[in-house]
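Exercise (ungraded).
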Amino acid sequence: MSATPAALGADTRDQDRAVPFFRAARAVFDLSLEGMVWSRRSLLMILLLGLPAPLALLFRIFITRLPSRVSGFDFYGIVIAFYYVRNALPLAALFYATALIADEVEGKTITYLLTRPIQRVSVLAGKFAAYLVTTLALALPAVVLTFFLLTTIRGWSGIGSQVPDLFRDMGAVALTLVTYGAFFTLMGVLLRRPVIPGLLFLFVWELLANAPGYLPRFTITAYLRSLIHHRPPDEGMAEIFAQVLPTALCLEAVGAMIVVFLAGAAWIFSTREYVLDQ
Amino acid sequence: MTATLEYVRASRWYGPVIALNDVTTTVGPGVTGLLGPNGAGKSTFLKLAAGQLAPSQGEVRVLGKAAWGSPELFHRVGVCPETDAFWEGLTGLQFLMALLRLTGFDDAECRRRADHALEQVALAEARDRKIGGYSKGMRQRIKMAQSLAHEPQVLLLDEPLSGMDPVNRRRTVDLVKKLGREGRTVLVSSHILHEVEAMTRRVLLIHNGRILAEGDVREIRDLMDEHPHTVALRARDPRALARAVVGAPHVLSLTFGAEGEWVTVQTARPDEFYSAVVDAAVEAGVSEMYSPDENLESVFKYLVAR
């Protein structure tokens, strides 16, 4: 065969091995990130994940007097536990993570990724990383803004003692995105049309988190909401938080779920054929 | 001939449908045409070599390794898929750079190789335009560029000339021939006999999932001459195109399409027609040209009946 043209550099690649995992995953990440950030899906997610911030601003402007028993911090707790961890973040994970591979299959661009010297697991890793960066970039600023808008309604005094809660909540937000992202990535490679089953999982199955006994342990949300440490003071609000599981158990369960879901998704994606319609 | 691609009793079925049926053949360096009508099994044949499908039975080996489950092969294999699919928001350069990164090159080398590939397919001037704004022919060429940018030893090209205008069709044919002369193994599928003939004399004839014949394209060409050959052309000025070709002795009939831009020509001698149409194409602004495959079907029917 002819030599490499003079204009090109020497080919120093080890052609007997696939491109190293992290290098390949990084290349997939770079390729995927821009498309994910500037997608129509992201516009919708900006609205979904950013919504509490403008609402908090309106709340701050128009609700001038709060009942003495309820603080802005309590409202912030509801936003984190009920809006973000229970609803908005799982929905964001559903719409992004089920599409990680499905978009490439539907767009028929999967062929370009599968005919490169890379392990398929690095494709999944790069895309999952792009999903996480995109959703965290959308969710975390809104969480921080909501925190400051709501917790400073009565002034800035005492804010210092609440900041550690903010960091814990940001960790819980990240864990929620990772856990549900892993779960929906698995669904996305397992099912041809995962959105409806995903919605049923979120809004039917996950209701078990409010059931008594051991049933909440069969949900994802029970572990994640237990990681939210601060609780509203009165019982009326407390009931939406239902059972609180031990933090160590939650972290172990969430860690195990992430590993199992991602490993399952990687295995399925690595062994599946993608036959595209012409 | 050293076998680069080996099919050993390879079959592939999708549920109850047999797409490839007990195929044993080899392909070596140089250009080989994979010729067959739509649905004959060409794409399955290529996808098995490209590691996109696993054989249901038998083996498919590329450069001595099983094609399925050997991603490292793609250091030395380039694939030009048939599907017209892209990340539309990327420019031609970004598209090639991204895929070269996935092939293991550093950024500087990616840039050099992307530029070189863009020049090879005459898209250097369009490198910074988004692929979403490319014409059909440009999209075919950027797809071709991504398959050869990493200088692979084996190229699998699925209908690479589809939708190209005559000038770029000729340019791409020349490029494929050059790649073959360089000693690369180029397997190029088409349902148009004339296209394959322009690139190589070595063909695999595939029909109903079986290799019907292997050998010299001229033998098939002789059969083809007994059948009128249909060519559809899309032109900015279809009447100018018609005026330019209608008097030629090899043109049997000419019809205008309902949409106004298309002209369909029946010719007895495709060689002469394709040579003659290049000059007229520039003047009439021909942007697309293809040959419906009914004629090839008739050749296959004829071959099967013999």
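Further reading is listed at the end of the chapter. For now, observe: Residues 97 and 185 of chain A are 5 Å apart (CA to CA). DSSP finds twelve helices and no strands in chain A.
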